[in-house]
Amino acid sequence: MDICLTPCEARVIGCLIEKQRTTPEHYPLSLNALTNACNQKSSRDPVLALDEATVQDTVDALMKKHFVIEKSGFGSRVTKYQHRFCNSEFGDLQFSGQELAIVCVLLLRGPQSPGELRTRTERLCKFGDSREVESTLDQLMQRDDGPFVTKLPREPGKRESRFAHLFGSETAIHETAVPANSVSAGPGTDSERMEQLEQMIRQLRDEMATLKARLDRISPEHDPGSMQ
Known about the structure:
By secondary structure, the chain is mainly alpha-helical.
């Protein structure tokens, strides 16, 4: 199954999945609540500053793809939205609770290690240890209707490799990040600017690896004999 989300679409879908699981009493979400969820400063990477018009445009695009629907209560004057991206009667894409938790957190926070995923999925599901996380990642990489996750090259000096979702490129999302995250925005020490530059380099490396994995998945293997 080849699903390609824009970075803003991935953030919206991730937020809807998260809020459905963690605050079901407030789900579906109004446009205002969804915008706040997208711009949340915790459990998000990068932190964004999307306005309601941008989120509305993103929701409209997802509705055309049949990944989001309006779902307002009887007599409600506020339009609310819920996802039908997965685990619904409207589509074939179904995840286990652990698979869904990993997909959700990858959509919200980008590439992460099994250890990070175990910690950051605690509100969504429980993993016994990092090996259980790795087993679930393997399932997401090997599913017949996937793969949905790819393993990125291990960074020098890091003990664990990181994993990224395959629902679209993360490249453009940094263009909408809060200006404070920019190297050129505001004062900062040399060490802070160097750390920001290193983070940008890591992000670019992750993006290239994710794109390569997608190309490898959709391109037929090259047969040298076919050129003769």
